[in-house]
Structure formats: structure tokens, C-alpha cells
Design brief:
The chain is α+β, with helices and mostly antiparallel strands and about 200 residues long. The chain has one domain (about 10-185). It has 7 helices and 6 strands; from the N terminus they run ααβαβαβαββααβ. The protein has a 3-stranded antiparallel β-sheet with strand order 1-3-2. The chain has a 3-stranded antiparallel β-sheet with strand order 4-5-6. Strand 4 and strand 5 form a beta hairpin. Helix 1 (about 10-20) crosses helix 3 (about 55-65) and helix 6 (about 150-165) packs across helix 7 (about 165-185). The longest helix is centred in the last third of the chain and has 21 residues, at about 165-185. It is globular, with a radius of gyration of 16 Å. The relative contact order is 0.18.
Length: about 200
């Protein structure tokens, strides 16, 4: 399907300004997670998750920092990720958690492990998480630490994204459908943090 609109650098500039909150001010989930995952937080290692960005976000980040570089696939799975990317996207990698510049994180980094969850009526009802990280991401086992400010900013950032990129909205609708299918098969309720933070 052809894109109707696409996000430009100016849109990512706005999104980055709106979405800077941590998942929790009280807990540093990366610091808690790192010892459980070989010294590196799950979200900061391409062994676990490869950041995929729009090329316009990549251009914006390159103007501001040298934190990021193009991701080089290292196995069959990572090659597949890169090969299946849309032409408007690219995979990138940072210098690691020790050199993080929080103001220059990608939208994917800011939101990890969460995504906007859509119900069957295609309405955002809150946030849920990428379930493939349940075994490695500490925060997924501790959803009670997620703060309202983070949820609000994530929803606001993605709402702005969807205004300019309908494909991105459809991708998260599909992600939500997949989650319903998987959790139904597992006979488990879907964990959602609602718009009200509950």
C-alpha cells in the first residue's frame, strides 16, 4: 500500500519534545534490567531488539548527535529484519547504554517495550507491550511502576505520528490484532495500561 503522508524531520522534532518522560521516575528499569541480561539493558542491545526508524528520524538524529550509526546485521534473524524493512525505514544502533544521550533517543527507544494498543473498534484504549520480551524485560513483570506521565506522552506522541502516517497507525492496529490472537491461544488476559493509567 502506498503512503498517503509520511513523517518529516519537523514532526520527529515535535514528537521528541513531547515524549521525554521515563517509564518511572522512582525506578531506573535499565539499571535493574542490566544485571539480569549480561550487563546491558534489554532495550539497549541489538542482540535483543533492533531499533527501526523512519529515515526522516534518522536524518534528524544525525544532525544532532553521533550516538547512532547504521545497524550491521550479524546473523540470519537480523538480516531478515533489515531485508523486510519498508523503503522509508532503516535499522540503526547506538553506542550502548553507558553512552546514552536521553534527549537523542529514537521514538522506538522512548516507548520500549510499549506500543499503543487498539481495540476491535480501532480505538486506542491504552498501551501494551511487545510480548516477545516477557522473559527479558524487567518492567514487563512490574507494570505497576509505569507512570501516568509516560503513558500520556506515549499516546500523544503516537497520536501525532498517526496524523501524518496512516501506515504507522495500521501497523499498530495489526500489532494489537496479533496480540489478541496470541493471548487468546495462550488463554491469558491481555495486559493493558489504560489511558487513565490503571
Amino acid at each position: 500500500m502506498r503512503r498517503i503522508m509520511a513523517l518529516k524531520e519537523k514532526h520527529f522534532e515535535q514528537i521528541h519534545k513531547k515524549f521525554g518522560s521515563s517509564i518511572s521516575e522512582k525506578y531506573d528499569c535499565g539499571r535493574i534490567c542490566a544485571p539480569l541480561n549480561g550487563g546491558e539493558p534489554v532495550c539497549c542491545s541489538t542482540d535483543n531488539a533492533v531499533p527501526v526508524v523512519e529515515k526522516s528520524e534518522w536524518r534528524l538524529l544525525r544532525k544532532k548527535t553521533d550516538l547512532w550509526h547504521r545497524f550491521k546485521p550479524f546473523d540470519a534473524d537480523s538480516r531478515k529484519i533489515v531485508e523486510e524493512l519498508a523503503s522509508s525505514s532503516c535499522a540503526i544502533e547506538c553506542k550502548g547504554a553507558a553512552q546514552c544521550e536521553r534527549q537523542h533517543r529514537t521514538v522506538a527507544c522512548r516507548s520500549f517495550p510499549f506500543f499503543p494498543y487498539f481495540n476491535k473498534d480501532r480505538e486506542i484504549v491504552g498501551v501494551s507491550y511487545y510480548w516477545i520480551f516477557e522473559d527479558r524485560c524487567w518492567v514487563i513483570s512490574n507494570l505497576k511502576i509505569v507512570e501516568q506521565k509516560f503513558v500520556d506522552e506515549l499516546i500523544e506522541a503516537y497520536s501525532l505520528t498517526f496524523k501524518h502516517d496512516e501506515d504507522e497507525r495500521d501497523a499498530f492496529i495489526d500489532q494489537s490484532v496479533s496480540m489478541r490472537r496470541v493471548f487468546s491461544r495462550w488463554k491469558r488476559p491481555i495486559p493493558i495500561i489504560g489511558l487513565d493509567g490503571r
